[in-house]
Every structure is written in structure tokens, then in C-alpha cells.
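Backbone description:
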Amino acid sequence: MPPRRGRGRRGTAEPEDRVDRIERILEGLVQVVHDVYNNNNHDDAPQQPAMPMPGAGAMPRTTIKQFQQLRPPTFYGTPDPMAAESWLLGIERVFEVLPCTDECFAPRSEFFTASVRVAK
């Protein structure tokens, strides 16, 4: 039997793919932070009712419940790049466990406001 090598991560993506994925996640999070900031500063503005996504049944509730049960790390908005990268790696680990593609993640980005605390 050949000797066993170190245990690497399954499905490790190319560095460019990983960077692209991180950029997409960060763009979504920046949009969420902007939306939260705008909603907090315009409380008198009428809120648009949430429209259900076509084909969204019990899966979104289950996925969000699963996400919350995994206790994702909280980002506190510190300017330390190491803290931000550590948080991002923690979030990526959570996404690896969840049965959610990038396409199904986008409409659920509003639920990340509890994970991202905006310093005021």
C-alpha cells in the first residue's frame, strides 16, 4: 500500500476561481451593508414588500436555518485585513457545508445583516 500523503481540502479550486468567488461574495456583502445603512437612515420611507422568489418553497427557510445553526463568524468591521480574511474563510467554510449555489445565495443576502455589524 502506498504511503498516505497529507490530507488536503477536497475540491480545492484554482486560486483565480477562489479570488473570483471571494470578490462576488464581497460585492454582495457591500451591497447588503449599503442597503442596511440606507434603511436605517430613512425609516420614514415606505418599505417595499418582500416578493417571494419563483420556485422558492420550503428550501429557503431550511437553508437559512441551517446557516444559522452553523453559527457563522461575525465581522465587526475592524480595519485589520487579517481579521477580515479570517472571517471570510469562516464564511466560506459555512458555504461549503450548505447546499446552496451562488445563484441561490444572491436572493438570501439580506439575511447576512446579522453577521455583519456596521460600526456607526
Remarks:
- Residues 15-40+58-114 form one domain.
- Helices lie at 15-41, 59-69, 81-97, 102-105.
- The chain has a mean pLDDT of 69.
